[in-house]
Amino acid sequence: MSGIDDRYVTHLEGRVREKAQDVANHLREVADAIERDANRGKLDRLPASVMHTLSWGLANANAAAVGYAFADLVEVREAILRELAGGES
Q1: Which residues are CB-contacts of 76 (< 8 A; sequence separation ≥ 6)?
Q2: Fewer C-beta neighbours within 10 Å, C or N terminus of the chain?
Q3: Can you give the pLDDT at residue 12?
Q4: Cα dist. 86→7, 79, 81, 82 in Å?
């Protein structure tokens, strides 16, 4: 594997972790919003507010980005392995 391959794989590995961290950060913001509602919101609206905030938060967490980033990493790793296997023939 060449140096550029090593750096690119390292970059893609970091990207997977970064996307996962983005999801975690977003969900912390969602949890903070729910906590604010729990402390200040109207009690009779709290269950609906929690469900709305949680549903909105999950829908907008962009969790699929973690999978997409990982798929990119797997594709590059497989391409490198194919290249190495082809070079040994």
Answers
A1: 5, 8, 9, 12
A2: C
A3: 97
A4: 21, 10, 8, 6
Name the 3-class secondary structure at 60: coil
pLDDT digits (tens, 9 = 90+) for 48-59: 999 999 999 999
Q: Which two tokens stand for residue 65?
A: 């980005």
Q: What token pair was written down for 13?
A: 């590995």
Is pLDDT above 60 for 1? no
- Dihedral sign, CA of 21, 22, 23, 24? positive
| Mean pLDDT (the chain, rounded) | 92
- Show Cβ contacts of residue 52 under 8 Å, excluding neighbours closer than 6 positions: none
CA dist., res. 85 & res. 63, Å (int): 34
Global confidence as pTM: 0.83
54 near 30, Cβ under 8 Å?
yes
